[in-house]
Design brief:
about 90 residues, DNA polymerase, domain 1
Length: about 90
C-alpha cells in the first residue's frame, strides 16, 4: 500500500507537468520509470539518473520536482508508520 501512495503522488506530478508542457504524460516518463523511482527511492540527481529510463534531460528538467515529491511522500509515510507503531 505504501508504494502505491508514493506512486500515485508521482503519477499526479507527471500529469501536472505534462499539462504545463502541453505533452502527453508518457512523454514525461512511463509508469515503469515511476515504479522504478518508487522502488529505488533516489535521494539526489546522481541517484535519479541511475534509474532505468531516466536521462540527463529528465533530470535537468524535472529532477528536482520528482525528488521533492518523492522525499515528501516518503516522509509522510514514515510518519504514518511511526504513529501506527506508537
Amino acid at each position: 500500500m505504501k508504494k502505491s501512495k508514493i506512486f500515485d503522488t508521482l503519477k499526479l506530478l507527471r500529469k501536472e507537468l505534462a499539462l504545463e508542457n502541453g505533452v502527453p504524460a508518457y512523454m514525461i516518463c512511463g509508469d515503469q520509470v515511476l515504479r522504478s523511482i518508487v522502488t529505488q527511492k533516489p535521494e539526489d540527481a546522481e541517484q535519479l539518473i541511475m534509474v532505468n529510463g531516466i536521462g540527463e534531460k529528465f533530470v535537468e528538467k524535472y529532477g528536482d520536482e520528482f525528488l521533492n515529491a518523492l522525499n515528501e511522500s516518503v516522509e509522510i509515510d514514515n510518519e504514518r508508520q511511526e504513529e501506527n507503531v506508537g
